[in-house]
Amino acid sequence: MSVATNLEALRGELKAQGLSAFLIPITDEHMSEYVGDYAQRITWATGFAGSAGNAAIGLDAAAVFIDGRYTIQVKQEVDGTLFGRHHFQEYPMLKWLQDHVTSGEKVGYDPELATIEFVESLQLALDKVGAVAVAVDQNPVDIVWESQPAEPLSPVVMHDAKYAGKTAAEKRTDIAAELEKKGADSAVITMLDSVAWAFNIRGKDVLNTPVVHAFALMHKDETADLFVEQSKVSDDVRTALGNAVRIRPREEFYSALQDLGRQNSTVLVDATTNNSKVFKSLEKAGATLVKGQDPCILPKAVKNPVEQQGTRDAHIRDGAAISKMLHWLSIEAPKGEIDELDCVDKLWSFRKELSMINDRSFDTISGAGPNGALCHYRVSEETNRKLDQNSLYLFDSGGQFNDGTTDITRTIAVGTPTAEMIENYTRVLKGHIQLTLMKFPQGTSGAALDTIARKPLWDVGLDYDHGTGHGVGSYLAVHEGPQRIAKGNNEIPLQAGMILSNEPGYYKAEEYGIRIENLVLVKELEGTYERPMLGFENLTWAPLDPTLIDRALLTEEEKQWVNDYHATVLEMISPQIDGEAADWLKKVCAPI
Q: In CATH, what number does 157-300 get?
Protein backbone atom coordinates (compact mmCIF):
# COMPACT_ATOMS: atom_id res chain seq x y z
CA MET A 1 0.00 0.00 0.00
CA SER A 2 1.14 3.55 -0.69
CA VAL A 3 1.74 6.21 1.95
CA ALA A 4 -1.26 8.13 0.58
CA THR A 5 -3.46 5.07 1.11
CA ASN A 6 -2.04 4.53 4.59
CA LEU A 7 -2.67 8.17 5.44
CA GLU A 8 -6.27 7.94 4.32
CA ALA A 9 -6.84 4.80 6.40
CA LEU A 10 -5.25 6.38 9.45
CA ARG A 11 -7.38 9.49 9.19
CA GLY A 12 -10.46 7.29 9.01
CA GLU A 13 -9.47 5.68 12.30
CA LEU A 14 -8.77 9.07 13.89
CA LYS A 15 -12.31 10.15 13.05
CA ALA A 16 -13.65 6.91 14.52
CA GLN A 17 -11.80 7.64 17.78
CA GLY A 18 -12.91 11.28 17.83
CA LEU A 19 -9.39 12.62 17.38
CA SER A 20 -8.42 15.72 15.42
CA ALA A 21 -4.74 14.74 15.33
CA PHE A 22 -2.43 11.93 16.38
CA LEU A 23 1.28 11.94 17.19
CA ILE A 24 3.71 9.29 15.93
CA PRO A 25 7.23 9.19 17.39
CA ILE A 26 10.10 6.92 16.35
CA THR A 27 10.27 4.79 19.47
CA ASP A 28 8.70 1.80 21.17
CA GLU A 29 7.22 1.08 24.60
CA HIS A 30 10.78 1.00 25.99
CA MET A 31 11.61 4.50 24.69
CA SER A 32 14.20 2.94 22.38
CA GLU A 33 16.17 4.78 19.71
CA TYR A 34 16.46 1.71 17.52
CA VAL A 35 13.18 -0.18 17.24
CA GLY A 36 11.91 -3.43 15.79
CA ASP A 37 10.02 -3.57 12.51
CA TYR A 38 6.68 -3.74 14.33
CA ALA A 39 7.33 -0.29 15.81
CA GLN A 40 8.34 1.47 12.56
CA ARG A 41 5.03 3.31 12.56
CA ILE A 42 6.37 6.59 11.22
CA THR A 43 7.82 4.87 8.16
CA TRP A 44 4.48 3.19 7.47
CA ALA A 45 2.60 6.46 7.86
CA THR A 46 4.97 8.90 6.15
CA GLY A 47 7.74 7.06 4.31
CA PHE A 48 10.46 8.59 6.53
CA ALA A 49 13.04 5.93 7.46
CA GLY A 50 15.43 7.92 9.66
CA SER A 51 16.23 6.95 13.23
CA ALA A 52 14.97 10.15 14.91
CA GLY A 53 11.88 12.23 14.27
CA ASN A 54 8.19 12.71 14.93
CA ALA A 55 5.04 13.01 12.85
CA ALA A 56 1.78 14.80 13.56
CA ILE A 57 -1.18 13.54 11.57
CA GLY A 58 -4.24 15.82 11.44
CA LEU A 59 -7.46 15.28 9.58
CA ASP A 60 -6.57 17.93 6.99
CA ALA A 61 -2.81 18.46 7.40
CA ALA A 62 0.20 16.44 8.48
CA ALA A 63 3.89 17.07 9.12
CA VAL A 64 7.19 15.35 9.86
CA PHE A 65 9.69 16.93 12.26
CA ILE A 66 13.39 16.06 12.09
CA ASP A 67 16.78 17.39 13.20
CA GLY A 68 19.68 18.63 11.09
CA ARG A 69 20.92 15.11 10.29
CA TYR A 70 17.85 14.41 8.17
CA THR A 71 17.04 17.65 6.37
CA ILE A 72 18.05 16.17 3.02
CA GLN A 73 16.78 12.65 3.66
CA VAL A 74 13.31 13.82 4.64
CA LYS A 75 12.94 15.59 1.30
CA GLN A 76 13.90 12.40 -0.52
CA GLU A 77 11.57 10.10 1.40
CA VAL A 78 8.54 12.18 2.41
CA ASP A 79 6.01 13.49 -0.12
CA GLY A 80 5.89 17.26 0.31
CA THR A 81 2.34 17.40 -1.09
CA LEU A 82 1.10 15.21 1.77
CA PHE A 83 3.32 16.34 4.65
CA GLY A 84 5.03 19.45 5.86
CA ARG A 85 8.73 18.77 6.41
CA HIS A 86 10.18 20.78 9.26
CA HIS A 87 13.32 21.09 11.34
CA PHE A 88 12.13 20.58 14.91
CA GLN A 89 13.88 23.72 16.15
CA GLU A 90 12.71 25.99 13.34
CA TYR A 91 9.09 24.86 13.56
CA PRO A 92 8.51 22.64 16.62
CA MET A 93 5.78 20.02 16.57
CA LEU A 94 3.99 21.57 19.54
CA LYS A 95 3.85 24.93 17.72
CA TRP A 96 2.51 23.15 14.63
CA LEU A 97 -0.25 21.63 16.75
CA GLN A 98 -1.18 25.04 18.12
CA ASP A 99 -1.48 26.25 14.55
CA HIS A 100 -3.61 23.31 13.38
CA VAL A 101 -6.00 22.40 16.20
CA THR A 102 -8.69 24.52 17.82
CA SER A 103 -10.60 24.75 21.08
CA GLY A 104 -12.31 21.55 22.14
CA GLU A 105 -10.39 19.30 19.75
CA LYS A 106 -8.55 16.19 20.91
CA VAL A 107 -4.95 15.29 20.09
CA GLY A 108 -4.19 11.63 20.58
CA TYR A 109 -0.96 10.02 21.72
CA ASP A 110 0.04 6.48 22.62
CA PRO A 111 0.92 6.49 26.35
CA GLU A 112 3.41 3.67 25.79
CA LEU A 113 5.29 5.80 23.26
CA ALA A 114 5.56 9.02 25.28
CA THR A 115 7.31 10.00 28.50
CA ILE A 116 5.37 11.74 31.23
CA GLU A 117 7.50 14.85 30.64
CA PHE A 118 6.40 14.97 27.00
CA VAL A 119 2.75 14.48 27.90
CA GLU A 120 2.94 17.37 30.34
CA SER A 121 4.57 19.66 27.76
CA LEU A 122 2.01 18.57 25.16
CA GLN A 123 -0.92 19.47 27.38
CA LEU A 124 0.63 22.82 28.31
CA ALA A 125 0.94 23.66 24.60
CA LEU A 126 -2.61 22.58 23.86
CA ASP A 127 -3.97 24.56 26.81
CA LYS A 128 -3.06 27.72 24.91
CA VAL A 129 -5.58 26.89 22.18
CA GLY A 130 -8.14 25.11 24.35
CA ALA A 131 -7.40 21.62 23.00
CA VAL A 132 -6.81 18.48 25.05
CA ALA A 133 -4.27 15.63 24.91
CA VAL A 134 -5.86 12.18 24.97
CA ALA A 135 -4.11 8.88 25.73
CA VAL A 136 -5.46 6.27 23.31
CA ASP A 137 -6.33 2.78 24.47
CA GLN A 138 -5.07 1.31 21.20
CA ASN A 139 -2.68 2.94 18.77
CA PRO A 140 -4.64 3.94 15.61
CA VAL A 141 -1.69 2.97 13.43
CA ASP A 142 -1.73 -0.57 14.83
CA ILE A 143 -5.43 -0.85 14.08
CA VAL A 144 -5.16 0.02 10.38
CA TRP A 145 -1.67 -1.34 9.62
CA GLU A 146 -2.77 -4.60 8.03
CA SER A 147 0.69 -6.06 7.44
CA GLN A 148 2.29 -4.88 10.68
CA PRO A 149 5.11 -7.30 11.59
CA ALA A 150 4.82 -9.34 14.77
CA GLU A 151 7.08 -8.66 17.71
CA PRO A 152 10.29 -10.73 17.50
CA LEU A 153 10.75 -13.99 19.38
CA SER A 154 14.51 -14.47 19.44
CA PRO A 155 15.79 -16.55 22.38
CA VAL A 156 17.30 -15.03 25.50
CA VAL A 157 20.99 -15.86 25.97
CA MET A 158 23.26 -15.24 28.93
CA HIS A 159 26.15 -12.77 28.72
CA ASP A 160 29.07 -14.37 30.52
CA ALA A 161 30.40 -12.57 33.59
CA LYS A 162 33.92 -12.98 32.16
CA TYR A 163 32.86 -10.28 29.66
CA ALA A 164 30.40 -8.39 31.87
CA GLY A 165 32.82 -8.06 34.76
CA LYS A 166 30.03 -8.56 37.34
CA THR A 167 27.40 -11.19 37.90
CA ALA A 168 23.72 -10.31 37.71
CA ALA A 169 23.45 -11.05 41.43
CA GLU A 170 26.20 -8.53 42.20
CA LYS A 171 24.39 -5.95 40.12
CA ARG A 172 21.12 -6.59 41.99
CA THR A 173 23.00 -6.02 45.25
CA ASP A 174 24.29 -2.67 44.00
CA ILE A 175 20.85 -1.63 42.73
CA ALA A 176 19.24 -2.63 46.05
CA ALA A 177 21.70 -0.38 47.88
CA GLU A 178 20.77 2.48 45.55
CA LEU A 179 17.08 1.90 46.20
CA GLU A 180 17.75 2.01 49.93
CA LYS A 181 19.41 5.40 49.51
CA LYS A 182 16.42 6.68 47.53
CA GLY A 183 13.92 5.36 50.05
CA ALA A 184 12.30 3.15 47.40
CA ASP A 185 11.04 -0.41 47.64
CA SER A 186 11.34 -1.07 43.91
CA ALA A 187 12.51 0.43 40.61
CA VAL A 188 10.85 0.18 37.21
CA ILE A 189 13.32 -0.73 34.44
CA THR A 190 11.98 -0.41 30.92
CA MET A 191 14.97 0.56 28.75
CA LEU A 192 16.03 -2.52 26.83
CA ASP A 193 19.76 -2.04 27.34
CA SER A 194 19.20 -1.46 31.07
CA VAL A 195 17.29 -4.74 31.34
CA ALA A 196 19.99 -6.55 29.35
CA TRP A 197 22.74 -5.05 31.51
CA ALA A 198 21.04 -5.73 34.85
CA PHE A 199 20.39 -9.42 34.18
CA ASN A 200 23.45 -10.12 31.97
CA ILE A 201 21.18 -11.27 29.18
CA ARG A 202 21.36 -10.59 25.46
CA GLY A 203 19.14 -11.28 22.46
CA LYS A 204 18.32 -10.29 18.89
CA ASP A 205 14.96 -8.58 19.27
CA VAL A 206 16.29 -5.32 17.78
CA LEU A 207 18.41 -5.24 14.65
CA ASN A 208 22.11 -4.83 15.48
CA THR A 209 21.45 -4.18 19.19
CA PRO A 210 21.74 -7.34 21.32
CA VAL A 211 18.73 -6.79 23.58
CA VAL A 212 15.59 -8.65 24.63
CA HIS A 213 12.07 -7.20 24.60
CA ALA A 214 11.46 -7.25 28.33
CA PHE A 215 10.46 -5.12 31.31
CA ALA A 216 11.80 -5.49 34.83
CA LEU A 217 11.15 -4.59 38.44
CA MET A 218 14.18 -4.47 40.74
CA HIS A 219 13.53 -4.67 44.49
CA LYS A 220 15.45 -3.58 47.58
CA ASP A 221 15.49 -7.17 48.87
CA GLU A 222 17.81 -7.99 45.91
CA THR A 223 15.12 -9.93 44.03
CA ALA A 224 13.73 -8.98 40.65
CA ASP A 225 10.84 -9.63 38.28
CA LEU A 226 11.66 -10.09 34.60
CA PHE A 227 8.69 -9.74 32.25
CA VAL A 228 9.46 -11.51 28.98
CA GLU A 229 7.77 -13.82 26.50
CA GLN A 230 8.06 -17.21 28.19
CA SER A 231 8.90 -19.17 25.03
CA LYS A 232 12.13 -17.16 24.68
CA VAL A 233 13.56 -18.34 28.01
CA SER A 234 15.22 -21.75 28.12
CA ASP A 235 15.65 -23.87 31.23
CA ASP A 236 19.37 -23.11 31.15
CA VAL A 237 18.69 -19.38 31.25
CA ARG A 238 16.20 -19.82 34.10
CA THR A 239 18.81 -21.77 36.03
CA ALA A 240 21.50 -19.17 35.34
CA LEU A 241 19.26 -16.32 36.53
CA GLY A 242 18.47 -18.19 39.73
CA ASN A 243 15.59 -18.24 42.18
CA ALA A 244 15.93 -14.54 43.05
CA VAL A 245 14.67 -13.64 39.58
CA ARG A 246 10.99 -14.32 38.94
CA ILE A 247 10.44 -14.79 35.20
CA ARG A 248 6.91 -13.67 34.37
CA PRO A 249 4.88 -13.25 31.15
CA ARG A 250 5.52 -9.92 29.43
CA GLU A 251 1.81 -9.09 29.38
CA GLU A 252 1.69 -9.10 33.21
CA PHE A 253 3.93 -6.04 33.49
CA TYR A 254 1.29 -3.32 33.87
CA SER A 255 -0.82 -5.43 36.24
CA ALA A 256 2.34 -5.94 38.33
CA LEU A 257 2.69 -2.15 38.54
CA GLN A 258 -0.88 -1.97 39.80
CA ASP A 259 -0.03 -4.63 42.40
CA LEU A 260 2.82 -2.42 43.67
CA GLY A 261 0.34 0.41 44.06
CA ARG A 262 -2.13 -1.73 45.97
CA GLN A 263 0.72 -2.76 48.27
CA ASN A 264 1.42 0.95 48.95
CA SER A 265 4.94 0.50 47.63
CA THR A 266 7.35 3.36 47.08
CA VAL A 267 8.61 3.04 43.52
CA LEU A 268 11.56 4.69 41.78
CA VAL A 269 10.56 5.85 38.29
CA ASP A 270 12.55 7.66 35.61
CA ALA A 271 10.64 10.46 33.93
CA THR A 272 12.99 10.41 30.95
CA THR A 273 12.96 6.66 30.20
CA ASN A 274 9.74 5.16 31.61
CA ASN A 275 6.70 5.67 29.41
CA SER A 276 3.70 7.61 30.68
CA LYS A 277 1.58 4.45 30.99
CA VAL A 278 4.02 3.29 33.68
CA PHE A 279 3.40 6.49 35.65
CA LYS A 280 -0.36 6.38 35.25
CA SER A 281 -0.57 2.69 36.17
CA LEU A 282 1.34 3.28 39.40
CA GLU A 283 -0.42 6.51 40.31
CA LYS A 284 -3.92 5.13 39.78
CA ALA A 285 -3.12 2.10 41.96
CA GLY A 286 -1.84 4.26 44.83
CA ALA A 287 1.93 3.81 44.67
CA THR A 288 4.22 6.50 46.04
CA LEU A 289 6.50 7.66 43.23
CA VAL A 290 10.12 8.70 43.68
CA LYS A 291 11.37 10.37 40.54
CA GLY A 292 15.00 9.63 39.75
CA GLN A 293 17.30 8.17 37.17
CA ASP A 294 17.02 4.53 36.14
CA PRO A 295 19.53 2.96 38.60
CA CYS A 296 21.14 0.92 35.81
CA ILE A 297 22.04 3.87 33.56
CA LEU A 298 25.10 5.25 35.33
CA PRO A 299 26.77 1.95 36.32
CA LYS A 300 26.12 0.70 32.78
CA ALA A 301 27.81 3.80 31.37
CA VAL A 302 30.83 3.65 33.71
CA LYS A 303 32.57 0.53 32.47
CA ASN A 304 34.30 -1.72 34.98
CA PRO A 305 37.91 -2.82 34.38
CA VAL A 306 36.84 -6.05 32.65
CA GLU A 307 34.60 -4.16 30.23
CA GLN A 308 37.31 -1.58 29.59
CA GLN A 309 39.85 -4.23 28.66
CA GLY A 310 37.27 -6.06 26.58
CA THR A 311 36.54 -3.02 24.46
CA ARG A 312 40.27 -2.39 23.98
CA ASP A 313 40.68 -5.94 22.72
CA ALA A 314 37.60 -5.75 20.48
CA HIS A 315 38.85 -2.55 18.87
CA ILE A 316 42.23 -4.04 18.05
CA ARG A 317 40.56 -6.94 16.26
CA ASP A 318 38.12 -4.57 14.57
CA GLY A 319 40.97 -2.38 13.41
CA ALA A 320 42.29 -5.28 11.34
CA ALA A 321 38.99 -5.56 9.47
CA ILE A 322 38.90 -1.80 8.84
CA SER A 323 42.50 -1.80 7.64
CA LYS A 324 41.78 -4.67 5.24
CA MET A 325 38.78 -2.73 4.00
CA LEU A 326 40.83 0.42 3.42
CA HIS A 327 43.47 -1.60 1.58
CA TRP A 328 40.77 -3.18 -0.62
CA LEU A 329 39.37 0.27 -1.37
CA SER A 330 42.82 1.53 -2.34
CA ILE A 331 42.87 -1.11 -5.08
CA GLU A 332 39.25 -1.28 -6.21
CA ALA A 333 37.94 2.27 -5.82
CA PRO A 334 40.22 3.78 -8.52
CA LYS A 335 38.82 1.27 -11.05
CA GLY A 336 35.43 2.99 -10.88
CA GLU A 337 33.44 -0.26 -10.77
CA ILE A 338 32.48 -0.73 -7.10
CA ASP A 339 29.42 0.82 -5.47
CA GLU A 340 28.17 1.53 -1.96
CA LEU A 341 26.51 -1.85 -1.51
CA ASP A 342 29.67 -3.64 -2.67
CA CYS A 343 31.52 -1.81 0.09
CA VAL A 344 28.96 -2.78 2.72
CA ASP A 345 29.23 -6.44 1.77
CA LYS A 346 33.03 -6.40 1.60
CA LEU A 347 33.39 -4.75 4.99
CA TRP A 348 31.09 -7.32 6.61
CA SER A 349 33.06 -10.12 4.98
CA PHE A 350 36.20 -8.83 6.72
CA ARG A 351 34.43 -8.43 10.06
CA LYS A 352 32.90 -11.91 9.92
CA GLU A 353 36.43 -13.33 9.98
CA LEU A 354 37.06 -11.85 13.44
CA SER A 355 36.77 -13.84 16.65
CA MET A 356 33.83 -13.17 19.00
CA ILE A 357 31.90 -11.18 16.36
CA ASN A 358 28.12 -11.51 16.64
CA ASP A 359 26.63 -8.76 14.49
CA ARG A 360 27.00 -5.26 13.15
CA SER A 361 26.42 -2.57 15.76
CA PHE A 362 24.22 -0.59 13.31
CA ASP A 363 23.42 -0.50 9.62
CA THR A 364 26.62 0.52 7.84
CA ILE A 365 26.57 4.06 6.46
CA SER A 366 28.19 3.80 3.05
CA GLY A 367 28.07 7.16 1.30
CA ALA A 368 29.76 7.93 -2.01
CA GLY A 369 29.99 11.52 -3.20
CA PRO A 370 26.76 13.42 -2.45
CA ASN A 371 25.33 10.51 -0.46
CA GLY A 372 28.13 11.05 2.03
CA ALA A 373 26.62 14.45 2.77
CA LEU A 374 23.64 12.69 4.40
CA CYS A 375 24.84 12.21 7.98
CA HIS A 376 22.80 9.06 8.63
CA TYR A 377 22.44 7.87 5.06
CA ARG A 378 21.18 4.31 4.59
CA VAL A 379 22.11 2.79 1.26
CA SER A 380 19.45 0.88 -0.68
CA GLU A 381 19.11 -0.56 -4.17
CA GLU A 382 17.36 2.67 -5.18
CA THR A 383 20.00 5.05 -3.82
CA ASN A 384 23.10 2.93 -4.45
CA ARG A 385 25.81 4.71 -6.43
CA LYS A 386 29.32 3.96 -7.61
CA LEU A 387 32.41 5.48 -6.06
CA ASP A 388 33.20 8.09 -8.72
CA GLN A 389 36.65 9.35 -9.51
CA ASN A 390 37.88 12.51 -7.80
CA SER A 391 35.29 12.23 -5.03
CA LEU A 392 35.09 11.33 -1.36
CA TYR A 393 33.72 8.13 0.13
CA LEU A 394 32.54 7.95 3.76
CA PHE A 395 31.77 4.77 5.65
CA ASP A 396 30.58 4.57 9.25
CA SER A 397 30.27 1.11 10.74
CA GLY A 398 30.71 -1.04 13.81
CA GLY A 399 30.65 -4.54 15.21
CA GLN A 400 29.04 -6.27 18.18
CA PHE A 401 31.61 -8.49 19.88
CA ASN A 402 31.24 -10.55 23.04
CA ASP A 403 33.73 -8.24 24.71
CA GLY A 404 32.77 -4.86 23.26
CA THR A 405 30.93 -2.67 20.77
CA THR A 406 32.80 -0.75 18.06
CA ASP A 407 31.90 2.30 15.98
CA ILE A 408 34.29 3.91 13.50
CA THR A 409 34.06 6.31 10.57
CA ARG A 410 36.67 6.85 7.89
CA THR A 411 36.59 9.13 4.87
CA ILE A 412 38.83 8.43 1.87
CA ALA A 413 39.66 10.17 -1.36
CA VAL A 414 38.84 8.31 -4.56
CA GLY A 415 41.18 9.63 -7.22
CA THR A 416 42.39 13.19 -6.74
CA PRO A 417 40.62 15.26 -4.08
CA THR A 418 40.07 18.99 -4.54
CA ALA A 419 41.90 21.55 -2.45
CA GLU A 420 38.61 22.31 -0.71
CA MET A 421 38.12 18.66 0.23
CA ILE A 422 41.64 18.49 1.64
CA GLU A 423 41.24 21.68 3.67
CA ASN A 424 37.88 20.66 5.12
CA TYR A 425 39.08 17.13 5.93
CA THR A 426 42.10 18.59 7.69
CA ARG A 427 39.91 20.97 9.70
CA VAL A 428 37.74 18.05 10.79
CA LEU A 429 40.91 16.16 11.71
CA LYS A 430 42.20 19.13 13.73
CA GLY A 431 39.00 19.19 15.77
CA HIS A 432 39.19 15.44 16.28
CA ILE A 433 42.77 15.68 17.50
CA GLN A 434 42.17 18.62 19.81
CA LEU A 435 39.27 16.86 21.49
CA THR A 436 41.35 13.70 21.91
CA LEU A 437 44.11 15.72 23.60
CA MET A 438 41.81 17.57 26.01
CA LYS A 439 42.46 17.57 29.73
CA PHE A 440 39.52 18.61 31.87
CA PRO A 441 38.61 18.68 35.57
CA GLN A 442 36.25 16.15 37.08
CA GLY A 443 32.68 17.42 36.90
CA THR A 444 33.02 18.66 33.31
CA SER A 445 30.12 17.86 31.01
CA GLY A 446 30.31 16.86 27.38
CA ALA A 447 28.56 20.08 26.43
CA ALA A 448 31.57 22.00 27.75
CA LEU A 449 33.91 20.09 25.39
CA ASP A 450 31.84 20.18 22.20
CA THR A 451 33.21 23.48 20.89
CA ILE A 452 36.77 22.13 21.00
CA ALA A 453 36.05 19.85 18.05
CA ARG A 454 34.12 22.53 16.15
CA LYS A 455 36.56 25.45 16.43
CA PRO A 456 38.71 24.66 13.34
CA LEU A 457 35.51 24.60 11.28
CA TRP A 458 33.99 27.62 12.98
CA ASP A 459 37.17 29.55 12.16
CA VAL A 460 36.11 29.49 8.49
CA GLY A 461 32.33 29.63 9.00
CA LEU A 462 31.60 25.90 8.80
CA ASP A 463 29.82 23.52 11.20
CA TYR A 464 27.96 20.20 11.41
CA ASP A 465 24.42 19.43 12.55
CA HIS A 466 25.02 16.50 14.88
CA GLY A 467 26.63 15.88 18.22
CA THR A 468 30.37 15.36 18.47
CA GLY A 469 30.15 12.31 20.69
CA HIS A 470 27.70 9.74 22.02
CA GLY A 471 28.08 7.10 24.69
CA VAL A 472 28.72 3.50 23.61
CA GLY A 473 27.78 0.29 25.43
CA SER A 474 29.70 -2.87 26.19
CA TYR A 475 28.24 -5.44 23.78
CA LEU A 476 25.09 -3.36 23.98
CA ALA A 477 23.64 -0.25 22.35
CA VAL A 478 26.00 1.69 20.10
CA HIS A 479 24.22 4.86 21.29
CA GLU A 480 24.17 4.89 25.09
CA GLY A 481 23.39 7.59 27.63
CA PRO A 482 23.60 9.54 29.73
CA GLN A 483 26.95 10.93 28.54
CA ARG A 484 27.25 12.97 25.35
CA ILE A 485 29.55 15.51 23.75
CA ALA A 486 27.15 17.89 22.07
CA LYS A 487 25.62 21.35 22.01
CA GLY A 488 22.70 22.01 24.30
CA ASN A 489 21.80 21.50 27.93
CA ASN A 490 23.49 18.16 28.54
CA GLU A 491 25.09 18.71 31.93
CA ILE A 492 25.96 15.08 32.73
CA PRO A 493 29.56 15.07 34.02
CA LEU A 494 31.94 12.76 32.22
CA GLN A 495 33.36 10.07 34.49
CA ALA A 496 36.35 7.78 34.24
CA GLY A 497 35.21 4.54 32.61
CA MET A 498 32.73 6.10 30.21
CA ILE A 499 33.15 5.36 26.49
CA LEU A 500 32.25 7.99 23.91
CA SER A 501 32.68 8.62 20.22
CA ASN A 502 34.78 11.51 18.90
CA GLU A 503 33.28 12.27 15.49
CA PRO A 504 33.38 15.80 14.11
CA GLY A 505 32.41 16.17 10.47
CA TYR A 506 31.53 18.44 7.61
CA TYR A 507 28.84 17.91 4.97
CA LYS A 508 28.51 19.85 1.74
CA ALA A 509 25.00 19.21 0.46
CA GLU A 510 24.80 17.32 -2.82
CA GLU A 511 28.61 17.08 -3.06
CA TYR A 512 30.41 15.19 -0.28
CA GLY A 513 30.61 14.35 3.39
CA ILE A 514 33.54 14.12 5.79
CA ARG A 515 33.58 12.47 9.20
CA ILE A 516 36.41 11.05 11.30
CA GLU A 517 35.31 8.89 14.23
CA ASN A 518 37.23 7.03 16.90
CA LEU A 519 35.94 5.83 20.26
CA VAL A 520 37.62 7.08 23.42
CA LEU A 521 37.61 6.02 27.05
CA VAL A 522 37.46 8.65 29.79
CA LYS A 523 40.39 8.10 32.15
CA GLU A 524 41.88 9.69 35.25
CA LEU A 525 45.09 11.57 34.50
CA GLU A 526 48.21 10.87 36.47
CA GLY A 527 50.38 13.75 37.58
CA THR A 528 50.30 16.67 39.97
CA TYR A 529 47.27 18.87 39.44
CA GLU A 530 45.44 21.30 41.71
CA ARG A 531 42.26 19.28 41.20
CA PRO A 532 41.52 15.80 39.82
CA MET A 533 41.78 15.80 36.04
CA LEU A 534 40.41 13.56 33.31
CA GLY A 535 41.39 12.90 29.73
CA PHE A 536 40.73 10.46 26.89
CA GLU A 537 42.35 7.15 26.00
CA ASN A 538 41.99 6.33 22.32
CA LEU A 539 40.36 2.96 21.60
CA THR A 540 40.07 2.85 17.80
CA TRP A 541 43.03 1.85 15.66
CA ALA A 542 42.80 2.21 11.87
CA PRO A 543 44.70 4.52 9.50
CA LEU A 544 43.57 7.92 8.29
CA ASP A 545 43.85 8.91 4.63
CA PRO A 546 47.18 10.78 4.34
CA THR A 547 46.24 12.13 0.88
CA LEU A 548 43.55 14.25 2.55
CA ILE A 549 45.80 15.81 5.18
CA ASP A 550 47.17 19.32 4.57
CA ARG A 551 50.25 19.27 6.73
CA ALA A 552 50.56 23.05 6.53
CA LEU A 553 47.26 23.42 8.41
CA LEU A 554 48.39 21.23 11.30
CA THR A 555 50.28 22.50 14.32
CA GLU A 556 53.43 20.67 15.38
CA GLU A 557 51.45 19.06 18.20
CA GLU A 558 48.82 17.85 15.72
CA LYS A 559 51.43 16.46 13.34
CA GLN A 560 53.01 14.60 16.23
CA TRP A 561 49.62 13.19 17.18
CA VAL A 562 49.06 11.86 13.64
CA ASN A 563 52.50 10.28 13.57
CA ASP A 564 52.10 8.74 17.03
CA TYR A 565 48.62 7.49 16.17
CA HIS A 566 49.77 5.84 12.97
CA ALA A 567 52.77 4.31 14.71
CA THR A 568 50.40 2.70 17.23
CA VAL A 569 48.07 1.54 14.42
CA LEU A 570 51.05 -0.15 12.80
CA GLU A 571 52.05 -1.77 16.09
CA MET A 572 48.53 -2.98 16.91
CA ILE A 573 47.31 -4.05 13.47
CA SER A 574 50.40 -5.36 11.63
CA PRO A 575 50.45 -8.69 13.51
CA GLN A 576 46.92 -9.39 12.27
CA ILE A 577 47.41 -8.85 8.54
CA ASP A 578 49.97 -9.94 5.99
CA GLY A 579 50.99 -9.75 2.35
CA GLU A 580 50.06 -6.70 0.26
CA ALA A 581 47.74 -5.39 2.97
CA ALA A 582 50.62 -5.32 5.46
CA ASP A 583 52.85 -3.49 2.96
CA TRP A 584 50.06 -0.99 2.27
CA LEU A 585 49.51 -0.39 5.99
CA LYS A 586 53.18 0.37 6.52
CA LYS A 587 53.07 2.89 3.68
CA VAL A 588 49.96 4.81 4.82
CA CYS A 589 51.20 4.87 8.42
CA ALA A 590 54.51 6.46 7.48
CA PRO A 591 55.26 9.73 9.33
CA ILE A 592 53.94 12.87 7.69
A: 3.40.350.10
Q: Where are the domains of the chain?
A: 3-144, 157-300, 302-588
State the Cα–Cα distance between residues 135 and 114, nearest whole angstrom. Answer: 10
Superfamily of domain 302-588: Creatinase/methionine aminopeptidase superfamily (3.90.230.10)
Report the alpha-carbon distance of residue 54 to residue 38 in Å, rounded.
17
List beta partners, residue 107.
21, 133
Identical fold for domains 3-144 and 157-300, yes or no, is yes
DSSP helix/strand/coil, 379: coil
Do the beta carbons of residue 8 and residue 2 sit within 8 Å? no
Q: Rounded to an integer, what is the distance from CA 307 to the centroid of its chain?
A: 19
For 574, the 3-state DSSP assignment is helix
* pLDDT of 583 above 80: yes
List, for residues 437-491, the tens digit of each pLDDT value: 999 999 999 999 999 999 999 999 999 999 999 999 999 999 999 999 999 877 8
pLDDT digits (tens, 9 = 90+) for 81-110: 999 999 998 999 999 999 999 999 999 999
Report domain 3-144's class. alpha beta
181 vs 418: CA distance, rounded Å: 59
Task: Select from 297, 379, 311 the least CA-distant residue to 342.
Answer: 379
Is-above-0.70 flag for pTM? yes
CA-CA distance, 85 to 83, in Å (whole number)?
6
